[in-house]
Amino acid sequence: MGAPHRTELPLADRQPPVERADAARNRLRILRAASVIVAEKGPEALTMNAVAQASGIGVGTVYRRFGDVAQLLNALLDEREKQFQAAFLGGPPPLGPGAPPAERLHAFLHALADRVIEQREMLVAGETASPCGRYTSGPYTTMHTHVAMLVAELRPQADAALLAHLLLAPFTPSLLDHLSRGQGRTARQITDAVDELLATGGLLGD
Fold it and tell me: Are 113 and 122 in contact (CB under 8 A)?
């Protein structure tokens, strides 16, 4: 029998501790400055020193608020992540509740491919800054738990937690960046190939 998997999802939108007004203003200034740098020069130009200079906030404060570039990129991506989570956890079917597990898994992986390809530059930058940080982050843990629950419904005797990791592996930002930008593969080609893998494994049926 497979290893037990978690059933409580660590949502991205849990409320953080209440900030002082000046701390909240500094956080907003830092994120706005980081957004401008990424939009104008690309995520590779994002450094803590560059953000400090652009925001007019001391580099020590920038480090204290965000720790490193990977965490800063994660903060920039957080709003998009909240929208994605809201769609697959509580939105309309088949992505949200109400559809059979195979349909939800199919819809989720297609939506995930679109999301990663859409923001691949920032996601790749975050992955480069902290290669293993992806697997302990809140967003990944939420996705993994969601996929594991769907797999457990489809294959009760399987190691759902392990299969969920392997199902998410093709959506590593650097791989999708290589496939889409390096090899010219479209999002449709990628998701069609994922469907073939799932069908071969019997998760989507014939």
Answer: no
User: Which amino acid is it at 182?
Assistant: G
Task: Count CA atoms closer than 13 A to 81's CA, side-chain side.
Answer: 20
Give the C-alpha distances (Å, rounded to integers) separating 159 from 11, 37, 82, 164: 23, 43, 28, 9
pTM of structure: 0.70
Residues 6+ apart with CB under 8 A from 160: 2, 3, 5, 148, 149, 151, 152
Q: Rounded to an integer, what is the distance from CA 200 to the centroid of its chain?
A: 26
CB 12 within 8 A of CB 82: yes
pLDDT (tens, 9 = 90+) of the chain, 206 residues, equals 444 444 445 455 455 555 678 888 898 899 889 988 887 888 888 999 999 999 999 999 999 999 998 888 878 878 778 889 999 999 999 999 999 999 999 999 999 998 898 888 888 877 887 888 889 888 899 999 999 999 999 999 999 999 999 999 999 999 999 999 899 998 889 889 988 888 887 776 55
Helix, strand, or coil here: 18? coil
Tokens representing 112 are: 């995930």
